[in-house]
């Protein structure tokens, strides 16, 4: 499968995504500078983590104007997979491809630690290898990851199965103390209506090898790869 | 015109030094020239008090590719064509005034030193010292230093994987913020900072130049006082986003187009002056700069401002003329400013012109021999052992009553900020980005794999100011011994070290004595452990007069950053116990008998006896060498399941830390403690490692072969920490103070 990993000025998990896709999973994974205007020929677009434009003004607010974003939107409209991680999630929200926003963590501090995530929707390409309710361990690394949307939007997301992951404890319960950043309803990741655009704050590319402390992140990447053909057609 | 005292004070030049400069120049310097001389003759840039002592360090070895002082960082060959560039540097004085930006720009500066070598920065560590957290100002400094380190490093995408923090009264008002950066490069892609041949172009890249940080190098070379707040303009403000672009652009340039450039040099202390002059000095060349070309943040900046500004995130790239267009296009693609500001000459002079505005066309505002700037006067001072130190060392610790409740003392120690878990700090740092972190913060050393190889490196920082205060020589030995022991405990062989030497005012005989003895101790340990010093930094004049009285020096605090290598990442040793039933062995001691001397400088005595810090610490360097060897030999033979060295808090705290981390208990109730119980449990005798093994017999016989004393302590299992009849604590009860100690101390607002 051919992955395009978009690099904005200030992106830093581009190489981590490339490593897990290319060196661990044997896929084609190219770094694409944000000034590119075409993403033709790629199956999946990854918007990786980092501090695009230093998170100045507001996280993701400047990157959404990059030339590449028009191509990302076209890719999403065509029903092909777009995977926003951390800053990539923030950019997708700013660009209107996903609902809601990411606010400062309720601790007002940066947090880098493992979180447990419960799979809430396994009908997307990204979650197709998971069982409903399965608990996976993926680390977070952010200062602005507190997901927020108004109640109407949230209810709509919930009723349409668009909450992809919730922060939970080891037993899969979305307890308040297992919410690392104050996200509403413990939401860690959401998808668009068609389920082909996923944004999540945790970093699956960091959970790609046992040597790094865990490999649950591979389940998500494998999901994209295995359902790749359908996604392109769909 | 001869400058007045105020002018000389601003640049921290003595009258004698000014006269020496005039004599060597055969005239009086201009304003710009005087500023340049002051900056490069400052202790921070010129090492005028420390250079003779630094020569005591061993600096070469079979794996050393660049030695201390030769380049921006030391470089060590780690095999398979890869090398590691690393260095530690202080940002103490700025952090005392403006802790967030001071710490942030400390990180930025050390990262530039590493990518100036063409190496990709892969890890940061921070060694921090503060006054007690019972004081509101110290809490403020602590929280904002941690914030600044995280704010900069997290944005940059370089993981902060380790470091340490300690607290003592002597650092009140003068915290220590030492940042270490580690980078990885292909050996054949390494860059030099030499200016190269005449005709090469000097390109200034990155941030525009502002008025921030003027006299920063000077500021770092005087004592802090109540007027230090007035020097706030000398503290720079960081822009990690700019640094990220600069880092990516420079690493890519070195990796892919190394033939376009002659060298790279970062602009740090003393800004453009230092960068250009140092490059020229290394090449035996001259430079000719026109400051009119420097992009600037505000109007009306003089040549003086432009030459001495310490605005962050700037690099000097030295380019052969035929590749000027290529290099400019490269940086422009990264959306960075890039201008030619000068040229390398062969006249051995640093010429500064200003063809901007009113100054006229190409008017020369400074012209000095490079050699005058790069060869400051050196002082070999006379140290003297102070009488108070004799008294401290002769203190009769045996007169102190022994512990009456060892369990309570253990729980109390586990909750002190000194010993408690530092998770409150490192959960605020991205310690995983770049996906190399095999062992992150919270262990003796951090371990990073080297992608594309089976290899891994282990890194740790250490330096015990309290021990150096009580015995500067022994403390110097201990700093090197503990840093290297920590990488050995992770399963790596120690290859080399970097150091940051934090002391008070060297013009005082007792401070100079501390400095000289510490350095002699460190040098002896580096020789014995075969770990040359490949880079470093000196921070002097760490003194404050918080109460308006006489300035008081910090504890002498040399901080050592050690680099270790393992050929195969599978030989990494965890800190946690692995399985119930494993045997636990103490390497380095063969008796649980408590010797009162072990209490010297211990946290236990400080906590239990009203802040007392006294006695004479000791270390047996030959035992340390054998200890490190036997652990690596035993690990290679598959005999080591986990390892953690004994340091602050002694044996009982070490065992408690392992049990808390692993969630597995230790039954060592059969150990029969004799002598002083407090010394046996909480004494801080160095050169001891707690090891778990599946074969105690084989491990003990290995120890005998290496002439290392060893003692079987007990068996892993259960949920209690039991040691002799004196210690019996549930892991859950020990975890409580250990996990919450730091947060509780910080929550004590209003308690000062």
What structural keywords apply?
heterodimer, A: alpha/beta, Rossmann fold, 9-stranded mixed sheet, two-stranded antiparallel sheet, B: 752 residues, alpha+beta, 60s Ribosomal Protein L30, Chain: A, 3 domains, 7-stranded mixed sheet, 23% strand
What this model shows, in words?
The complex is a heterodimer of chains A (234) and B (752). Chain A has helices at 14-24, 68-77, 87-94, 151-159, 217-226, 228-233, and strands at residues 2-7, 28-33, 44-47, 82-85, 101-103, 111-119, 135-142, 146-148, 163-168, 187-191, 197-200. With 234 residues, chain A is an alpha/beta fold. Chain A has a single domain (2-233), classed as Rossmann fold, CATH 3.40.50. In chain A, the strands form two sheets. In chain A, strands 2-1-3-4-11-10-9-6-7 form a nine-stranded mixed β-sheet, sandwiched between helices. Chain A has a two-stranded antiparallel ribbon with strand order 5-8. The model of chain A is unreliable at 230-234 (pLDDT under 50). By secondary structure, chain B is of the alpha+beta class. Chain B has three domains: 1-41 and 193-376, Phosphoribosyl-aminoimidazole Synthetase, Chain A, domain 2 (Alpha-Beta Complex), CATH 3.90.650.10; 58-190 and 425-572, PurM-like, N-terminal domain (60s Ribosomal Protein L30, Chain: A), CATH 3.30.1330; 382-420 and 573-752, PurM-like C-terminal domain (Phosphoribosyl-aminoimidazole Synthetase, Chain A, domain 2, Alpha-Beta Complex). Chain B is built from 26 helices and 30 strands. In chain B, the strands form six sheets. A seven-stranded mixed β-sheet of chain B has the order 8-10-7-11-9-12-13, with helices on both faces. In chain B, helix 7 (99-115) packs parallel to helix 8, helix 7 runs parallel beside helix 10 and helix 16 crosses helix 26. The two termini of chain B are 50 Å apart. In chain B, 63% of the residues are buried. The chains are: A alpha/beta (234), B alpha+beta (752). At the A-B interface, helix 1 and strand 6 of A face helix 8 and helix 10 of B.
